[in-house]
Every structure is written in structure tokens, then in C-alpha cells.
From TrEMBL, chain A:
Keywords: Acetylation, Ion transport, Membrane, Mitochondrion, Mitochondrion outer membrane, Porin, Protein transport, Transmembrane, Transmembrane beta strand, Transport. This is Mitochondrial import receptor subunit TOM40-1-like. It is found in: Mitochondrion outer membrane. InterPro entries: Porin_dom_sf, Porin_Euk/Tom40, Tom40. Belongs to the Tom40 family. Signal peptide: none annotated. It comes from Phoenix dactylifera. The keyword Ubl conjugation does not apply. Central component of the receptor complex responsible for the recognition and translocation of cytosolically synthesized mitochondrial preproteins. Together with TOM22 functions as the transit peptide receptor at the surface of the mitochondrion outer membrane and facilitates the movement of preproteins into the translocation pore. Directly involved in the pore formation. One of its GO terms (cellular component) is mitochondrial outer membrane. Residues 1-22 are annotated as: Disordered.
TrEMBL record, chain B:
Keywords: Membrane, Mitochondrion, Mitochondrion outer membrane, Protein transport, Transmembrane, Transmembrane helix, Transport. The lineage of its organism: Eukaryota, Viridiplantae, Streptophyta, Embryophyta, Tracheophyta. It comes from the Eukaryota. It is found in: Mitochondrion outer membrane. This is Mitochondrial import receptor subunit TOM7-1-like. GO terms for biological process: protein import into mitochondrial matrix.
């Protein structure tokens, strides 16, 4: 009796487009008499991906200018990528918020994707290197390294993460430069609810913080809440309206700077295109379209209109290759 | 007075005569190692990926690395 619920590890359903990765019990006829087997809860999503669905819908990579990406696969696991960008980039400046700096760069990248080892490297024309390594040391332990190395001294950043995944919980330990240490832990409490918490310590500024998060999801909706001692409260809600459409909303409150921002967005995943749009409480409207012109050729349009700051950003581009 | 100061210093260290400089040596050496590791990673990461990729099965040809087809 409990085995039909405990068998949740291998549902034969097609993967839902919103990316709800938690293996839920199959919607069988015995839904009314489904007993929760608390010893066989599904594995929760990683702590940093708790708001994954909301971020995917509400924060597409908006850009201004021209973008061209070419990915060439040499074999199943190894591929090279060439990327050209010409446009304006927002650089935070101390005097007047962010200023737009026109930049043009070429980026060369190499990817090696293996089930056990993933290496991604991107190098720009000014010498900056973006490196990501993910290595499965054992079945349950994963090492992730994320680094941005620059030629200027003291501007490089790196972070080491050790992830441990068990049957119904995940734990992670992080070490970064500038003496940053962090740890987080997330546990499935019921088949739909998972709770987690994180602590971090910044050595050079002698700051530490603690945060708590909760995620409730069914196969139609995901609701998350995060509170941190840095004074940030973040809530999000994503509803999958149909196979092709999902709506998302997001609320963030920073009690230190008394900043509130709330946004509402939609995500249409259609056969030939993916359209994401959002509306902000700061008066910002954005949309991002990826249209599949042909096998492996995608056309991208990005638009962001900020009515409050009178900032209009439009970008277009093309992606060739998988 | 000088002997009192020196004995107080020895009592505080407890382990060796130049404990403070040993810790400083270790810190300096680890900083030097991190600097060298950063330079090695900066120049060698992308070549490392390319070498690992070119040796994975099925082995791609060297001309595929530079041709745009």
C-alpha cells in the first residue's frame, strides 16, 4: 500500500516545461486514499534554486544592442562557442546610479559536458575568464567551482561549493574569496513542502547572516518564501496555467534600504518560440522573445522600457547551434 | 627587565621560539600559492577544456577546432 506512494522516484510522465523537478507521486486513481509516506519523501531542489521557476520566467537575460552566439559541437560532449556583443552595458557608478557604457566584445568559450564532469569556460577579449566546474565526486557529493578571473589585481572572484544530496535533504558548504564561508541545508517535510536555511560569514567585513526559506509546490504551482537577516524578504508564486503558459509573480522587500519591488510576468512556451514578459512596480516593462527560425537557429528580441527613469533598451540577436 | 620580557614571550608562544614568524610564513606561502594558482587557472583553464574535449570519444579532428563548419 505504501509502496505505490514510495515508488515516486520513477514517474513515467513527460518532463513539465516549467521545470518542476520534484518527483511527485503519480496522479493515480487512489489519490483520495493516498497516505503520505514520511520516510520516502522526494529530494528537494537545491537551496539556491528554490526560486528557479520564478527566476526563469521573470528574469530573462535582457540586453541592449546586438548579440550573436555561435555554438559548434565537435562531439556529443565537447563544443566551442563564439559570441559577439555590441551594445551598451550598465555599469554601476557611485555618482549617479548606473551609467551606460558602450562596449563591444568577442567571447570564446569551450564546454565539456559529461554526466560526471562539466567544464565551462568563457574568455573575453579583455582577458576576463569565466569558469564553471561541476564534478561528481561520488554519487551523492558534488563539487562546484565558479570563478571570474581578471587581469586586474584584486578583482577576481571565486567560489567553491560542496553539495551533498541525500534521500530527502540536501546540504551545501561554500567557500569563496574575501574569506566568504556559507552553508545551507534544505529538507523535504511533506511531499509538497520543503524548508531550508542558510548561514554565511564574510571574513573581511566581519559580517554574518542567517536566512530561512520555504518552498511549497504542487504540479500546478510553486510558492516560495525567503527571509534573511540582511533584511530581505522575498516571496514568489508561479502558476502553471496550461502546458504552454505559466504566470509568475514576485515580491521583494529590503528592510535596510526600505526598498520594495514587485513584479508580475508571463511565460509562453510555444512550439516555435518562447515569449517572456514582465511588468514591474518600478514602472518597468520588459519582454524577451526567442523565436526558432530553423533547426538550431534562434532569433532573439529583447526590450526593456523603464518609464520612471526614461530608459529604453532594445536588443536583437541570433543564436546558431544548440 | 629584558629577560622578563623574553620569558613572557616564550611562555605565551609555548611551542617554538619563532611561532609568530612560522604562522606568517605559512600565510605568505599560501598567498603566493594562491597567486600562482590564479595565474595557472587563468591561462590554462580553456586549454585544459580543449585538451580534455579533444581526447573524449569520438575523437574530433584537429581541423574541426578551427573551421566554422
Amino acid at each position: 500500500m505504501g509502496s505505490s506512494v514510495g515508488d515516486a522516484a520513477a514517474p513515467p510522465l513527460p518532463p513539465p516545461p516549467v521545470g518542476l523537478a520534484v518527483a511527485l507521486p503519480p496522479k493515480a486513481e487512489d489519490k483520495s486514499e493516498r497516505k503520505v509516506d514520511y520516510l520516502n519523501l522526494p529530494c528537494p531542489v537545491p537551496f539556491e534554486e528554490i526560486q528557479r521557476e520564478a527566476l526563469m520566467s521573470l528574469k530573462p537575460e535582457l540586453f541592449e544592442g546586438l548579440r550573436f552566439d555561435f555554438t559548434k559541437g565537435l562531439n556529443q560532449k565537447f563544443s566551442l562557442s563564439h559570441s559577439v556583443f555590441m551594445g551598451s552595458v550598465e555599469v554601476p557608478s557611485p555618482s549617479s546610479g548606473a551609467i551606460k557604457v558602450p562596449t563591444a566584445h568577442y567571447e570564446f568559450g569551450a564546454n565539456f559536458l559529461d554526466p560526471k564532469l562539466m567544464l565551462i569556460g568563457r574568455v573575453l577579449t579583455d582577458g576576463r575568464l569565466n569558469a564553471r566546474v561541476k564534478c561528481d565526486l561520488t554519487d551523492n557529493l558534488t563539487l562546484k567551482i565558479n570563478a571570474q578571473l581578471t587581469n586586474e589585481p584584486h578583482f577576481s572572484q571565486g567560489m567553491f561549493n560542496f553539495d551533498y544530496k541525500s534521500k530527502d535533504f540536501r546540504a551545501q558548504y561554500q567557500m569563496g574569496n574575501n574569506a566568504f564561508y556559507g552553508a545551507n541545508y534544505i529538507q523535504s517535510v511533506t511531499p509538497n513542502l520543503s524548508l531550508g536555511s542558510e548561514v554565511f560569514w564574510l571574513g573581511h567585513q566581519r559580517k554574518s547572516g542567517i536566512g530561512f526559506a520555504a518552498r511549497y509546490n504542487t504540479d500546478k504551482m510553486v510558492a516560495t518564501a525567503q527571509v534573511a537577516s540582511t533584511g530581505i524578504v522575498a516571496l514568489s508564486y508561479v502558476q502553471k496555467v496550461s502546458e504552454k503558459v505559466s504566470l509568475a509573480s514576485d515580491f521583494m522587500y529590503n528592510s535596510m534600504t526600505r526598498d520594495v519591488i514587485s513584479s508580475f510576468g508571463y511565460d509562453y512556451i510555444l512550439r516555435q518560440c518562447r515569449l517572456r514578459g514582465k511588468l514591474d512596480s518600478n514602472g518597468c516593462v520588459a519582454a524577451f522573445l526567442e523565436e526558432r527560425l530553423n533547426m538550431g537557429v534562434n532569433f532573439i528580441l529583447s526590450a526593456e522600457i523603464d518609464h520612471q527613469k526614461k530608459d529604453y533598451k532594445f536588443g536583437f540577436g541570433m543564436t546558431v547551434g544548440e | 627587565m629584558a629577560s622578563r620580557v623574553s620569558s613572557k614571550g616564550k611562555g605565551k608562544a609555548g611551542r617554538g621560539p619563532d611561532d609568530g614568524s612560522t604562522a606568517r610564513c605559512v600565510k605568505d606561502w599560501s598567498t603566493w600559492a594562491m597567486k600562482k594558482a590564479k595565474v595557472v587557472a587563468h591561462y590554462g583553464f580553456i586549454p585544459l577544456i580543449i585538451v580534455i574535449g579533444m581526447n573524449s570519444e569520438p575523437k574530433p579532428h584537429l581541423s574541426q577546432l578551427v573551421s566554422p563548419v
